[in-house]
Amino acid sequence: MSLCLAGAGVTKTLALAAFTLAWTHSIEKVEWQEDWRVTPAGLELITARIKGSGAGMEPAPDARLVDGWYQWHPHQAPLPEVVLGNSGLAGEWRICHDGGCETLSQIMGHKLGAEPTTMRVCDD
């Protein structure tokens, strides 16, 4: 399985079965991470982590504090796609795997503007 990222007329394919989506909240400036799995049913959110809480960023009721992060396991069906907006106010979305992270601009090969980027399972 592979992850496809599409935005501003560019599509990139990342050959990976799992990844972490990381970002900084635009208002609270707090780090957030989500672990995703690429499956035949779609993109499956496995674990969410947040470094603190604040405006619209409360941890789930079942979250536990682990190594300074509130961590929980969302229970939702796999999604056919995830649309990532880009406000430009908090840095960029980062895709992390195999011990490193890249911004969406690095992956897409150009500086992203306000246009969204869509994540989905690639059609093989």
Structural overview:
The structure is a single chain. By secondary structure, the protein is mostly beta strands. It has one domain. It has one helix spanning 104-108, and strands at residues 3-7, 10-14, 18-24, 31-39, 42-50, 64-66, 69-72, 81-84, 94-97, 100-103, 117-121. It has a 7-stranded antiparallel sheet. The longest helix has 5 residues, at 104-108. The model has no long low-confidence stretch (mean pLDDT 89).
What are the key terms here?
124 residues; mainly beta; seven-stranded antiparallel β-sheet; four-stranded antiparallel β-sheet; 1 helix
The percentage of residues in β strands lies in over 45%
Residue runs with pLDDT of under 50 for 5 or more positions? none
Describe the biggest sheet? 7 strands, antiparallel
Mean pLDDT over the residues: 89
Radius of gyration: 14 Å
Q: List SSEs in N-to-C order.
A: EEEEEEEEEEHE
Count every beta strand, where a strand is a DSSP E run of 2 or more residues: 11
The number of domains: 1
* Tally of helical runs: 1
The shape, in one word, is globular
Order of strands across the main sheet: 6-7-5-4-3-9-10
Structural class: mainly beta
* Helix percent band: under 10%
Determine the N-to-C terminus distance: 8 Å
Oligomer: single chain
